[in-house]
């Protein structure tokens, strides 16, 4: 097949590798230059494309008439989008003779939209998935070609879940690619009644409050811990990031939310709106990341003190 790839991130990298491994003609790769303000922890699609001798483009807007004409001139049979960050509009979607396919990081029709790997953790889901689907103008709403479920362990973070999803995406894409080439790949309508949509997340969405249930805070922490900006609250007028924590069930102890219940070798135990939270790794604004135990010692944190009330 003659294809054009719009791709980025680990899933873009593994799927481009698979196209090359199976001998398909990649007429061009459209990707992003890395943002110097972003922590780049994932594999480089532009580096793979250029090292493979593929024509590589990084437009700030792929939907301009000039760029649409450029892609049209390549006469692709299929256009693939693998974690590409810009929305592709109708003129581009109408170019390939056999259509456009997107690989989305959820088990569609659930979690359409942005940041699905973070949202499934925020919401405490037990599974997610990867889905290859036909592209239409409504995001992530086209017919499904292939999908695979990915289980979420209680200890998973966004980083560990990405590893699972990248492996699942590579395996799924390798299996379905010969069917796409032969024109025998399935095409299944999405069940619109089961669809859910989530928008993008900002660093400010990482704020939590001590009156939340401990499990809710834990899910937020693991959803936005490294390499993401982190979950935070306030301590002494400064932002306190919590990088690692674990909820502790203790329904017998009635303590105001935010109160320090214990300080031990494992960290700081804090009361929440429901049960408790063990803070294992934290970072106060202007300081280095450290264990909860080290933080309590450095700031002379005492049992009974309220975290949010520290002056």
Largest sheet: 7 strands, mixed
Bulk shape: elongated
What is the typical, i.e. mean, pLDDT? 95
Strand content: 25-35%
Specify the helix fraction band: 25-40%
**Number of helical segments with 4 or more residues:** 8
Q: CATH fold name of the largest domain, please?
A: Rossmann fold
Strands side by side in the biggest sheet: 3-2-1-4-5-7-8
Distance between the termini: 65 Å
The structure class reads: alpha/beta
Taking pLDDT < 50 over at least 5 consecutive residues as the criterion, the unreliable ranges are none
Which descriptors apply to this entry?
27% helix, 15 strands, 2 domains, 311 residues, seven-stranded mixed sheet, alpha/beta, 8 helices, Rossmann fold, Methionyl-tRNA Fmet Formyltransferase, Chain A, domain 2
Q: Secondary structure elements and their pairing?
A:
Blueprint: E1 2-7, H1 9-21, E2 25-30, H2 45-51, E3 56-57, H3 65-73, E4 78-82, H4 90-93, E5 100-104, E6 112-113, H5 116-122, E7 127-134, E8 144-151, H6 158-182, E9 197-198, H7 214-224, E10 231-235, E11 238-248, E12 260-264, E13 267-271, E14 276-284, E15 290-291, H8 292-298
Parallel strand pairs: 1-2, 1-4, 2-3, 4-5, 6-9
Antiparallel strand pairs: 5-7, 7-8, 10-11, 11-14, 12-13, 13-14, 14-15
Helix pairs in contact: 1-6, 5-7
């Amino acid at each position: 097949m003659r294809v054009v790839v719009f791709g980025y991130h680990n899933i873009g990298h593994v799927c481009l590798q698979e196209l090359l491994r199976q001998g398909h003609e990649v007429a061009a790769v459209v990707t992003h230059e890395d943002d110097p303000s972003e922590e780049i922890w994932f594999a480089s699609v532009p580096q793979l494309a250029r090292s493979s001798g593929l024509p590589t483009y990084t437009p700030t807007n792929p939907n301009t008439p000039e760029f649409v004409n450029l892609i049209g001139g390549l006469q692709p049979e299929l256009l693939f989008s693998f974690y590409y960050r810009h929305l592709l509009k109708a003129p581009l979607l109408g170019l390939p003779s056999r259509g456009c396919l997107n690989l989305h990081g959820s088990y569609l029709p659930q979690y359409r939209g942005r940041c699905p790997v973070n949202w499934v953790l925020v919401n405490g889901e037990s599974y997610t998935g990867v889905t290859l689907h036909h592209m239409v103008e409504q995001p992530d709403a086209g017919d499904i070609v292939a999908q695979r479920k990915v289980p979420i362990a209680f200890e998973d973070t966004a980083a560990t879940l990405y590893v699972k999803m990248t492996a699942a995406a590579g395996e799924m894409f390798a299996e379905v690619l010969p069917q796409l080439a032969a024109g025998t790949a399935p095409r299944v309508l999405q069940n619109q009644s089961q669809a859910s949509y989530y928008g993008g997340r900002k660093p400010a969405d990482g704020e939590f409050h001590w009156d939340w249930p401990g499990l809710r805070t834990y899910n937020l922490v693991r959803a936005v811990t490294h390499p993401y900006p982190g979950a935070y609250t306030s301590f002494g007028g400064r932002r306190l990031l919590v990088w690692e924590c674990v909820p502790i069930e203790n329904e017998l102890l009635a303590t105001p939310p935010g109160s320090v219940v214990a300080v031990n070798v494992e960290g700081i135990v804090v009361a929440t709106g429901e049960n408790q939270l063990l803070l294992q790794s934290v970072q106060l604004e202007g300081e280095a990341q450290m264990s909860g135990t080290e933080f309590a010692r450095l700031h002379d944190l005492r049992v009974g003190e309220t975290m949010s009330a520290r002056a």
